[in-house]
Amino acid sequence: MGSSVNGGPGGRVSNNGVDKGVDFANYFCTYSFLYHQKEMLCDRVRMDAYYNAVFQNKEQFVGKVVLDVGTGSGILAIWSAQAGAKKVYAVEATKMSEHARELVKANGLEGVVEVIEGTVEDINLPEKVDIIISEWMGYFLLRESMFDSVIVARDRWLKPTGAMYPSHARMWLAPIKTGLGDQRINDYESSTDDWHRFLDETNTYYGVDMSVLTRPFCEEQNKYYLQTSIWNNLHPHQLIGIPGIIKEIDCLTATVEEILNVRANISSSITEEKTRLCGFAGWFDVHFRGSKQSPARLEIELTTAPSENNGTHWGQQVFLLHPTPRVGKGDDVLISFSMDRSKENHRLMEVEFGLEMRHLAGRNPQPIKKKFYIE
Amino acid sequence: MGSSVNGGPGGRVSNNGVDKGVDFANYFCTYSFLYHQKEMLCDRVRMDAYYNAVFQNKEQFVGKVVLDVGTGSGILAIWSAQAGAKKVYAVEATKMSEHARELVKANGLEGVVEVIEGTVEDINLPEKVDIIISEWMGYFLLRESMFDSVIVARDRWLKPTGAMYPSHARMWLAPIKTGLGDQRINDYESSTDDWHRFLDETNTYYGVDMSVLTRPFCEEQNKYYLQTSIWNNLHPHQLIGIPGIIKEIDCLTATVEEILNVRANISSSITEEKTRLCGFAGWFDVHFRGSKQSPARLEIELTTAPSENNGTHWGQQVFLLHPTPRVGKGDDVLISFSMDRSKENHRLMEVEFGLEMRHLAGRNPQPIKKKFYIE
């Protein structure tokens, strides 16, 4: 044998049918490292957005009760307190809670910020809150399915007049050009070439014919190299068409049913002369608008769109096409997009693209269907 | 957020207190990829040893009933059948069992090899077996703790006169020289330098003093860079002292208690002129000797020792020292070694070294104690 083994504490089955031990072992434990917290705290776009959402709207926080869902190192809870909150409940599922507690104390806020170790589904608060602040966004917004927990917190603990920080979220999709595809094709092909050398050897030296496994092996490698979306920070000039919104979420009213899947039919018109449609990029933005009763004085946006100088640790998710259709300025790409949670792991996603080209000139190619996995 | 999420099915707590769902999610799932099976099947040292253990001792298999624990792709079960076994039970916990079944059929052995999907702890056989064959060895032999399952299989299903393949295993330790240490020190130092830049920024731009987290961050990074053993295929000339055996296992009689931990006090004399003791390498070998009642005609050895041309996918585990003591030919290094399973994950290990130098000439330095983690 000889393989990788991951860590993680024991578990029990939680009421949503997801094994909690597995979820802790696989998900929460990734957030229990300061190194990983630091990576997020070094994301200037992320930090500036939340910092300004709090301090440019100080008056929203003064004298208020705040709940921070998944506080991690405690930064959002500390800012809320510094902005004048009367009380901040900072909930963290991992042992990171201990570091958050130290940090709160070192910044002289132990009188205001109360760090609670536990999942927001399990904890109990002595009062309802005016504001729920949380950085719950995963790759392409919904990966990690953490907003489920924010919804639970909101429905249990937010006052009817309360505000969500962020208050709104959107998912975007756009056609792109990229060199990533050729790379992946090469990796896939050398992997399958190598497989055939392996078949010959196993047959010659060890008397076993493994060719029956060729199909499943190629399927496995195809999924890994060609059907798994790729993290990338794209340059804006790699966008070759008009980005479209495929999902809008009002964080104050959204239900889990609403975010279980994403279905959208959009059309993107190509903005570039003769080029190749290499695939699509998916990203998100969120907005901090406060609530109807207490709107933010200054609306803040956090965007993870392709940017020359303001990339984020979220980057974009890239979905590659093989082969890459020819497109030109004025052509329309009709995209029917659907995303669902994977059955094996509710924090991962399965995506399906249906594509139709409407060329300005010449014949329209056959519609394309392709499935992807967001791992 | 934005982090890695691993897969894995749901689970229940098994009687040994280890959450089975977590164990599947973290451990077994790594073996459910053909790519990973291929890596093991491409290890010529591993393949040749098992192939010869079976076919150089054909007469041991003719007309016998065999159990393969953790058959993976099914290769050992197929060889056992090809060598003349009357019946082979091939047990595999993951979906790889389906591929094994196809492979057995494609090689015309479905009449002899019965692939059973399940853990060996849970399955039931209609008869006792003459031979248990299994490739259960993890990095440094005991990582993965898979031999526990082989012991269960042996105590339940092996006839009193039965034989284990392999029949014996040994763990080795030797002093080495390597450049890996400087590399790791550099990585550690640039990581902590970067942390201090991060502290200044967070303080200046975001008004939070994170210095209280410096100690835990450095401890985390120290564990990662300097206390975690490293996989490496060393060249024999990197050994600077006589290797010593720290554990011997008779696979026919060993109990789980016997392998829960490893305790050894050995002395290694340095064989090289003036050099640095950069650390230690740990590896294992196993032997195929059959049993007293039916000894193998030809004893086969599978060794993962440093080798110029016969490296394995197990390589060696390298434990680095900082600083690196000066040693010279004839000096003795007294090593008190202990290894235990980690409390968080019984398939990972925690190692402690106690070191004393006996220099031929000059003063002996202070004894050294160092803790390592085999992740």
From TrEMBL, chains A, B:
Catalysed conversion reaction: L-arginyl-[protein] + 2 S-adenosyl-L-methionine = N(omega),N(omega)-dimethyl-L-arginyl-[protein] + 2 S-adenosyl-L-homocysteine + 2 H(+)
UniProtKB keywords: Methyltransferase, S-adenosyl-L-methionine, Transferase
Keyword S-adenosyl-L-methionine applies: yes
GO terms (BP aspect): methylation
Pfam families from the UniProt entry: Methyltransf_25, PRMT_C
Cleaved signal peptide residues: none
Quaternary organization: Ring-like homodimer.
Protein name: Protein arginine N-methyltransferase PRMT10
Species this chain originates from: Kingdonia uniflora
Lineage of origin: Eukaryota, Viridiplantae, Streptophyta, Embryophyta, Tracheophyta
